[in-house]
Design a protein that fits this description.
The chain has one helix and four strands. With 139 residues, the protein is α+β, with helices and mostly antiparallel strands. The protein has one domain. A four-stranded antiparallel beta sheet has the order 1-2-3-4, with helices on one face.
Length: 139
């Protein structure tokens, strides 16, 4: 009885594997920055959500008391502090007419650097904020 032995082995050649690795590398070069930007935009939206709730609570406080609250604990809401931001304020030169509050990004921010989100009695203050337009949600 004679066995038919196939001397050719099945598998990928080194050239084929190298081409696949190069293609994956090129795809990753484009995908990773987009993913990181998306992650940072999500973190920035946390700041906007937090500040929008503060803005609404300040408006209610002003309607009831004729002035804005100088401490967030005086507001009618309970919020957890944003995980990726440090809080400054609220502060004002005249609590009867205005207030301002700032969140500053802590830690690594996917290449966007340290940025701030500022809200006041009129909402998001883009003039005083340093957040990139790429991260600013549609308001």
């Amino acid at each position: 009885m004679k066995l038919n032995v196939n001397s050719k082995k099945a598998g990928f050649s080194l050239v084929e594997l190298t081409i696949v690795v190069v293609i994956l590398g090129v795809l990753a070069t484009f995908a990773v920055p987009r993913f990181m930007s998306s992650v940072e935009k999500t973190k920035a939206s946390e700041a906007f959500s937090y500040m929008a709730q503060i803005e609404s609570a300040q408006a209610r406080y002003n309607a009831e008391n004729g002035r804005y609250a100088n401490r967030t604990r005086d507001l009618d809401i309970e919020l957890n502090s944003p995980e990726f931001f440090s809080i400054s304020g609220p502060y004002s030169s005249n609590w009867e007419t205005k207030w301002e509050m700032k969140l500053t990004r802590n830690g690594a921010s996917s290449g966007f650097g340290r940025y701030t989100v500022v809200f006041d009695q009129d909402g998001f203050n883009s003039r005083k904020s340093s957040i990139s337009r790429d991260l600013t949600p549609a308001l």
